[in-house]
Specification:
mainly alpha
Length: 106
C-alpha cells in the first residue's frame, strides 16, 4: 500500500497492523482476530469527526485476507475493498501451498 500518494489526494489514511505484530504486545494468532479487530477499527473510524462514513480497505497478502474477514460484516458496508495477491479461502489456499511445497521437496 502507498499511503503518501493517497494522503496527497485528500484521503485520510490509517495503516493498521494485525494483532501481535509490529510491537502490539500481544501474541500473533493468524486468522483468529482479524474480523473483530477490523470491525472495531471501522467502527472507530466512522466515529471520527473527519470521517464521512465512507471507508475503503487496501492491502496485499495477509492484509488482503483481513479485507475478506471484515467486508461481509461491516454495517454499513465498506465503500470498496482492494485485496492484492490473496485468497478468499485461506484454508484451501494454505493447503494448496503446503501440498506444493511438499511435492517440490522430494
Amino acid at each position: 500500500m502507498f499511503p503518501a500518494p493517497l494522503a496527497r489526494r485528500g484521503f485520510q489514511v490509517l495503516v493498521q497492523a494485525t494483532r501481535g505484530t509490529f510491537g502490539s504486545g500481544e501474541q500473533f494468532r493468524p486468522f483468529t482476530t482479524e474480523r473483530d479487530d477490523g470491525l472495531a477499527t471501522v467502527d472507530w473510524l466512522r466515529k471520527q469527526p473527519w470521517c464521512d462514513g465512507r471507508i475503503a480497505m487496501v492491502g496485499g497478502s495477509y492484509f488482503g485476507h483481513t479485507q475478506w474477514a471484515v467486508a461481509p460484516y461491516a454495517d454499513p458496508p465498506l465503500t470498496c475493498v482492494s485485496p492484492h495477491i490473496t485468497s478468499a479461502n485461506v484454508t484451501t489456499g494454505c493447503s494448496m501451498w503446503t501440498a506444493h511445497r511438499r511435492s517440490t521437496r522430494r
